[in-house]
Amino acid sequence: MARRFEIEDTITREYRLFCATGTQLVIRLLPPSDTTDPMSHFPDSLNDLFRPELQNLSESVMVGITIQNRENQNDKPIRISFRRKDQLAANVILSLAHMVSQSILDLMQWKSFS
Known about the structure:
- By secondary structure, this protein is α+β, with helices and mostly antiparallel strands.
- The protein contains two helices and four strands.
């Protein structure tokens, strides 16, 4: 199976306010192959990333995610609040992204009626 992402950087940061240490991964999703379903490529990529990165962490570890378009800095990042590692899966991220996009759509429709 071909890799769906590349890890570009790993940064360890200390969060003194929370008395915690965090590891930040900067990844780049690779484009789907010609034989891959483009609609399943993103969730499959996330699941492939989460499995090895989270498997050795203790159950009490909290994980947060920021998805950002590095090519277009005008795009706002999508942030997923800290969750236990067992609560983090591609379907959670897709659900939150859907809620964000639906909120934007509702706001745009509301403004057009004003």
